[in-house]
Structures are given as C-alpha cells and as structure tokens.
Amino acid sequence: MDPGGILKAFPKRKKIHANPSSKALAKIPKREEGEGTGEWLSSLRAHVVPTGIGRARAELFEKQIVQHGGQVCPAQAPGVTHIVVDEDMDCERALRLLRLPQLPPGAQLVKSAWLSLCLQERRLVDTAGFNIFIPNRYLDQPQLSKADQNSSPGGCEGLLKTVLSPPPPPIRPVSPPQKAEEASSTQAQPGSDDETSDGEETQVSAADLEALISGRYPTPLEGDGEPIPAPEGLDKWVCAQPSSQKATNYNPHITEKLEVLAKAYSVQGDKWRALGYAKAINALKSFHKPVTSYQEAYSIPGIGKRMAEKIVEILDSGHLRKLDHISDSVPVLELFSNIWGAGSKTAQMWYHQGYRTLEDIHNQASLTTQQAIGLKHYDDFLERMPREEATEIEQTVRESAQALNPGLLCVTCGSYLRGKATCGDVDVLLTHPDGRSHQGIFSRLLDSLRQRGFLTDDLVSQEDNGQQQKYLGVCRLPGPGRRHRRLDIIVVPYGEFACALLYFTGSAHFNRSMRALAKTKGMSLSEHALSTAVVRDTHGIKVASGRVLPTPTEKDVFRLLDLPYREPAERDW
User: Fold this and answer.
1) What protein family is recorded (predicted)?
2) Which is the catalytic residue, given 310, 345, 376, 470?
3) Residue 310 designated active-site
C-alpha cells in the first residue's frame, strides 16, 4: 500500500504548534476526585465488541462499566444484558464476530453511542434509538435436545461448529488499559470475510502472508495452514524483481478510495479490517486490467463478497458512501499518531480523554520522555529532508567516527541508499573489517557527537540487540533555519554487516519477501545472519536455529537464496 496515497486524505496540520504560551484553547475541566464512584450501572452485564470501536476505547468503556458497578462478561455468558457494538455494525456481522448463531436470550444489541450517553448522564438511559435491528432468524430459539440435533438437517454442522469453537472464557475483571504501544498477547482469530474478526492482529494466515509478500495467493491445491511451499519459480516474489518493474495499477480510482478507509481503520486500531483492505488493495493493484463488474472483482483472490460490493459501488457511482461516514475522530487520531512514540492505541486513549489538538496534548496529557520529544519536534519530524541534508548528516557522523578510528566503515542505509530524493530519517551503519575494533566505539561516538552539539535529544539512548548496538535520537546541523532530524546509529560486528546492511536498507516490503522466501527453503534471515537447516514446528515457530552461513557481502545473501542480486535502488517496493 502506498502510504503517500493514503495520507492525502488526512493532510498534515503543520500550523498547529505545541506552544506552551498559547492559550487559544481552554483546558478541559478535570473530574473531581471521587466523582462517579456510585454503582448506578449495577444492573448492567455488558460485552463490548472492540471491532470498529477500537481496542483502547473499548477498554475505557469496560473500565467505566466496572467502576460504576456493572459487569463485563463474554457475550456467551448467562445473563448478559447488553452487547455494545460500533455505530456502523449490523446484526449479521456482530454475530459473526462473536461466533454466535443467535442473540443470547434477554440481550440487547446496542450502539456504542448508548453507552457513551449513559456515562455522560450518569444513569442507564433508554436504549430506544440505539438498538441494532435484529432479523427474526437471529433471535434466540429454544434449544434442541441432542437427539433432535442429530436428526435435524443442520445437526452435524452445528456440532462441528461447537467442537471447533473455543469454550467461552470466564467473566474477567477489567484492568486499566496497557501502555499504548505494549504488544498485545491476544490471539488473533481467523476471519470469514474481508472485514471480519475482532482482536489484535498477531499473525496472518499462510495465504495472507504469501499474498502480501510474494504477490500471489496460493491455489486451493496448496492447502491451508501448511508452511508456505517453495515456489516453482521466482517471478511472483517481490524480492526477485526490480522495483522499477512494479505492475501498473489499472484500478487507481478504486484503490485510492479503499486506501482512505484502510488508513482510517488503522488509526482507529481496527487492524483486522485494515489488513482486509490492504489485501484487497494489493490484489487490485496487481490485477492485469481494469475491473468492470462484481463477478470480476469477486473472482480476484484476496477479495471477498463485501469488498466486491464496495468495488461495484465505486464503479457505478464513482464514490463510496462509507467514506461519508468516517468518524470525525480519524483526522485527530492521525494527528496524534504522528507524534513520535505514540501509536494508534495512545492516540485513541488521548482522543477519548477529550484531547483534540496538539496544544491539548502539550498542556494536559501525561507524556513519556520520547513522546515529549516527538511533540516538541512534531513539524520537523514530519517534514522529509532533501537528500543533500541527509548527506551532510552522514558526513558529520562519519567524521566523528573516523576521528576515533580511521578504519571504521560508515554507510547510510534506508531510503537514502535506495536513491530516494527525500528521506524521513537517516540510518547510519558502522562496523570495522577486523571484526574487533567496532567494540567500544558506540558510547565514544555518541559522546563525541553530543560534545559537538550535533545530537540534541536521545529517544532510545542504547538498545543492545545481540552484538548490535542501536541508538535512536535527534540531531541538527549547525546554521540558522536548520531542522531537527531523526537519526539512528547502528554499530554491528563485521560478520553481521552484510545482513544488517540488507535489513536496514529495506524496503520493508522487500525484506519481508526475502525472509518469507528463506523460510520456504528451511532457512532463516534476520539483521544478524542467514541460517540454514532451521527447524520449525507445525505452527511455523522456530524450534532449532540451524547453522549460520557465511555472508561476507549482500551478494552472498542473494546467491544463497538463489536470487538475482538487486542493487539498493531496485529494492524500493
């Protein structure tokens, strides 16, 4: 997905500055201590579906329910009174996400706006006007006996669904939301359509992986859930092709609109729907001709029924109505998630705390050290630097490094090495050919750059990654009008230099493709090494790390993977 095409829908707000002296906006009044501790939700037993609502907002809802005397429980739990869903959710999709054939007896399916109003008015308000329409077929019916189930036409199918479905989890206490960017341990659930599943995305299927990385979906004969088989040819793998030969997108009028929705779902934390749109966009961009009908769209691997319907709507009207209903929160979430150190979860948390501008964040939000630096340099970090400025930054780091040891190798990676005209940041990789002299250079180099006044802020001052050391910080070249720029300095042993250079050069899509190809060959590729004879279990988890192959140069990595060598400029996928 081209992020540039997505971000056009949410232009950077470069006129909003985190100026502590600005008082343009009044502070949001804080709730008095002790207010809202009554148990006026004691009759509420609710389940909140995070899809569409967003994980952070759903967690805040759950916390408020418990705080005011209510209970949070699974949708399948006895006595559940309300199932809270996103405003745009329909009954069919809600039940599919919940893996329920019908709505539980006595439960109401309500929009999240109802719960918001309850919390605002501090009472259980009437659900009239907030209920989701429920067709009769989804209302709970009397349960059949085992004999009836076995004799009924759908008995076997129902039994199979029961066996395959996980048991309902117990009613759980709600803890405060985790720090925004902590990795979720929630197990991803497989979806049944292009917009399904709630929960955090922790893995994708083998088919999704191959489609997003190699550019093709496996045929039905290749199986489902099996390790990705080695391709017969390499012509479908991104890492085997020069980026100059990217396929022509014959459907930009469709993909541009879908990219807006993909970005909206992403910043709202709905990763599964964002993934569904990414799959469809990738499939459309790879299709060999303009799509002209529902049947043609639906026939493309990676595009489901509902996505095909959206494509036809665009074909028929030139517009997608869903774009008219994007939440007002999306541009604000985009604004907040552009703060370095804040992702979608933190952005959602700030939004639901009532913040709407960068001034709100500066004056009222509790920030980590990294987020405070990201806010301070918000505009500078978003402004891509010209290639010439990146060259000056590299030269500054090189001069300081070689003043400490003239034999050090210093290479700027990333988009700079791929030949891009502008760069978002600068990644400088350092090593020494003797395999020893890189040791101890890391802290000395940082001290030297600080003494010169070149480094202005430390984001992650030291991140040990095996034998590699990585610094993430902020620099500024001398002279008036110079901007603060993001700088990463990575020191690696010479034996890992080729794999590290490959990794930090990118692009990310190209790297994922190479790693996936290595996996099909029983190998493993990382920024440290290329290993062979790697053993993985049936879930693809590595159980034996294998043997490290010697890779003195990048060309050796390509050769060992049976790939034609690609210059950095040909890896810009």
Assistant:
1) Belongs to the DNA polymerase type-X family.
2) 310
3) yes
